[in-house]
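Inverse folding, one chain.
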């Protein structure tokens, strides 16, 4: 990952991106302040700035694939894979991929869920960037890391558009999985 201090106007660009993320009170339930990334996607300049900034950070990493999370991660992942000249690998919810898959269960606030990765999508030694739109507690991210480890691919780092820093996901990823984290925009979590 490129030294962020060497990217011209990095902080200014991040503030621009942040200004295009809506905050919605009491969604999906009372007491939650939801960070709505769809407003960033709806603004062509903000979306372009997001992809351009991520491209600048990772363009020299010699990546083979961007591995993106279901579903909003796909939107950013496909554009980023295109600009980086890599393949795009999808991590999906259980039962959505047609080929033989690795599966990884993870905990949610109330219960658990399972993510899957096609077994033949990555190979030993492939260099990958993991990507999702939002980092909260790190459950989805941890499951993605475990899935990629099963393939033998090498994780360069994990990129997020938003980090709800109060929820501790970045610390979990760095401490437990020893994977570098880049989050463009940081908000307190609720």
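Residues assigned per position:
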């Amino acid at each position: 990952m490129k030294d962020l201090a060497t990217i011209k106007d990095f902080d200014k660009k991040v503030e621009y991106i942040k200004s295009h993320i809506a905050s919605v009170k009491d969604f999906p339930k009372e007491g939650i302040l939801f960070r709505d990334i769809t407003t960033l996607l709806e603004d062509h300049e903000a979306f372009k700035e997001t992809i351009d900034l991520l491209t600048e950070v990772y363009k020299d990493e010699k990546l083979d694939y961007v591995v993106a999370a279901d579903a909003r991660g796909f939107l950013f992942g496909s554009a980023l894979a295109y600009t980086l000249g890599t393949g795009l690998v999808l991590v999906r919810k259980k039962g959505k991929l047609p080929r033989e898959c690795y599966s990884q269960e993870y905990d949610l606030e109330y219960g658990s869920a399972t993510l899957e990765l096609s077994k033949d999508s990555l190979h030993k030694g492939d260099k990958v960037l993991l990507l999702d739109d939002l980092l909260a507690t790190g459950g989805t991210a941890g499951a993605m890391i475990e899935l990629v480890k099963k393939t033998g691919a090498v994780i360069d780092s994990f990129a997020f558009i938003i980090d709800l820093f109060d929820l501790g996901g970045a610390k979990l990823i760095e401490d437990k999985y020893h994977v570098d984290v880049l989050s463009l925009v940081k908000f307190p979590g609720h």
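The longest strand covers residues 154-164. The chain has a mean pLDDT of 96.
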